[in-house]
Amino acid sequence: MPISAKPDRYGFFAFDGGLLHQLSDAYGLGPLTGFRPVLLDGDHVTLIDIRSQTSRKMVIEAADGSRLFLKQIPWYCETDTLTLASAWQTQATDAGLPVPRILRTTEGSAWYDIGGSSFTLTDYVPGRRYAGTPRDRAQAGHTMALLHSTPAEVPAGPAEDVFAGALEHIALTPDLTPVPTAALDLMRHAVHSWTAQAAAAGWGSLTGQLTHGDTNPWNLIYTDTSAALIDFDNAHRGPSLRDVAEAVLSFCAVRYRQDTTNFAPCVPGPVDRDQAADILTAYTRIRDLTPQERACLPPAAGAVAVGLVCLGLMRGDYPQDLAHSLAMWATAVPDDMTGLLAEACP
């Protein structure tokens, strides 16, 4: 979840034959036939840049019919984050987890600078988009648990605290869009309260874990048997239950605008208990939550909710007249999560 403001100009460039040759040479790929800016999913054809405007993405097609996925590294992803994310994703792939393999250049780099931007190249993962089924949600919970329970040797940083991140989102929001001060103050006060609550519950003992940082429905590719987790741009050190909180909220409360990652212009609803149970039941079959994590999950979910609200306001997904209602929704999330845990993970 980005905290820094998006630049006015992105530096996107036109893909052409010259760039294909540069990629082919950099990765030792042999002949490439073209870039495809669409995803095919059954009867659906999705323009990738419409689906998500975070960074440019393209499917690379080789002469033999094979496909790779080219993705521009987002503006907010710093080198230390990219180093950690690449190491984690590589080790997850080596361990057989459902994560796309990162290709390395002939010089051994996990990313490549081209046209003034940096890109990663991964295996193309065939599958389908989120269909809102219980199986999809169970697959998401299963894949998250596998990732969280597999040891990885990655760099010590960067570290991120979900509560500090929420406060940074609150601070950035009025710089980008006029939001009523009362709504921001309501969320700020709540975050400070949750920070103290989590600290008392043992939050500090969880900081050595790893978190993907963006576990929403669109960052998984679904098949009949499993789901692959993609887009590690927000990976960092911090309690992995932050992923659980975001998954529950983004799958089971937040609403999206048609076939995009943008939020629909309405206040998210309460967490759907049945839908959330699909995720949590599958997750805890692989990796049970510790007592400290169970105590910390509700306040952490509140901080994640605040981050989502601020992100939606900054992007213009949410109209300003919803700011107070959005703040009220976010501050109610911890109580909602406490009730959910009592039902789904007694």
The proportion of strand residues reads 5-15%
* Category from helices, strands and their pairing: alpha+beta
Order of helices and strands: HEEEHEEHEEHHHEEEEHHHH
Report the average pLDDT across residues: 88
Assembly type of the chains comes to single chain
The coarse silhouette is: globular
Largest sheet: 5 strands, antiparallel
Strand order of the largest sheet: 1-4-5-7-6
Given as residue ranges, the uncertain stretches (5+ residues, pLDDT < 50) are 9-13
Describe this structure in words.
With 346 residues, this protein is an alpha+beta fold. Helix content is 45%, strand content 13%. It has helices at 17-27, 48-51, 79-94, 134-149, 162-176, 181-201, 241-252, 273-286, 291-315, 323-344, and strands spanning 32-36, 38-41, 44-47, 57-62, 67-72, 112-114, 117-123, 210-211, 220-222, 227-229, 236-237. Strands 1-4-5-7-6 form a five-stranded antiparallel sheet, covered by helices on one side. Strands 2-3 form a two-stranded antiparallel ribbon. A hairpin with a 2-residue loop joins strand 6 and strand 7 (117-123). Helix 5 (162-176) packs antiparallel against helix 6 (181-201) and helix 6 runs antiparallel to helix 9 (291-315). The chain is globular, with a radius of gyration of 20 Å.
